[in-house]
Amino acid sequence: MKIIEVLHSFWTGNRTESPRNRKSWVKIEKAIKEVVPQDKQEDFTRMIEDHSDSVEYSGFVAGFRIAAKLWREL
User: Fold this and answer.
1) Which of 56, 69, 49 is nearest to 10 (CA)?
2) Number of CB atoms found within 10 A of residue 18's CB
3) pLDDT number for residue 35
4) Which of 50, 51, 71, 52 is nearest to 7 (CA)?
5) Domain of 52?
6) What tens digit of pLDDT does each residue of 27-43 get?
7) What's the pTM value of the predicted model, to 2 decimals?
8) Domain tally, the chain
9) Higher-confidence residue: 44 or 18?
10) Phi/psi zone of residue 13: left (φ > 0), alpha (ψ -120 to 50 degrees), beta?
């Protein structure tokens, strides 16, 4: 039952970001401040966040579909 709770938290987006992800975002934010004009930084950050969320969601859905097929085969 615990695995279902974990999967559900990923599905709903209620999870804690890993320290590795937080460090990565710090590096990205620093690079944005150095390269992107200040008036465009928020827009650029939002685009990166939206893209990251989309990629993560697509990967989760694909993995979940495979897991569901495997479960049916068992």
Assistant:
1) 56
2) 9
3) 96
4) 71
5) 1-73
6) 999 999 999 999 999 99
7) 0.64
8) 1
9) 44
10) left
